[in-house]
Amino acid sequence: MTPIDPERWNEVWAADLAVIQRLRDHGDLPHVIRDVDVSFRGTIEALRRLEFASSNWGFRVLEFVEADEDGQPWLFLVRSQTTDEEAIRELTMTYLQMEDSFEVECDGWGCEGQTRE
Questions:
Q1: What CA–CA distances, in Å, run from 117 to 21, 29, 59?
Q2: Contact assessment for residue 100 and residue 21, using Cβ atoms and an 8 Å cutoff
Q3: 116 pLDDT exceeds 90?
Q4: Which of 11, 17, 114, 115 has its CA 20 to 30 A from that of 27?
Q5: Rounded to whole angstroms, how far apart are CA atoms 35 and 20?
Q6: Does pTM surpass 0.70?
Q7: Is it the case that residue 39 has pLDDT exceeding 80?
Q8: Phi, psi for residue 51 in degrees, rounded to 5
């Protein structure tokens, strides 16, 4: 895999830390496993290639949208994991590598906060 540009990493990781903080501010228990979704934009062809390879990173396809309200295709992937900083750091590295490998753009990740064991 190609190394991630440090400047790019810092920008993306800062945004992901903000998501983690919002979860914590609402009482999220980071050690609880839950579905975490990641969405990607790109050409239909690139997204289809990613769709078929996504299980290599432990993802399942949540939804493939060939044209949203703006006519843009989207791919929504999901995998079960925790939201502790280490797990999200690995998720971030993974989706950045997926971006580079498939020439797509990650639009971020999200999940429902888990406040109960």
A1: 19, 8, 23
A2: no
A3: no
A4: 11
A5: 15
A6: yes
A7: yes
A8: -55, -45
Distance in angstroms (rounded) separating the CA atoms of residues 115 and 3: 36
Token representation of residue 30:
């980071």
Nearest to 59 by CA among 88, 81, 28, 86: 81
In the numeric block, which tokens belong to residue 51?
């769709």
- Assigned token pair, 12: 């993306």
Within 10 angstroms of residue 26's Cβ, the number of other Cβ atoms is 9
Strand partners, 76: 39, 63
pLDDT of residue 4: 86
Instruction: Please give the Cα distance from 57 to 74 (Å, whole number).
Output: 18
List the Cα angle 106/41/3 in 5-degree steps. Answer: 40
The residue whose two tokens read 């990641």 is 38
Token digits of residue 50: 């990613």
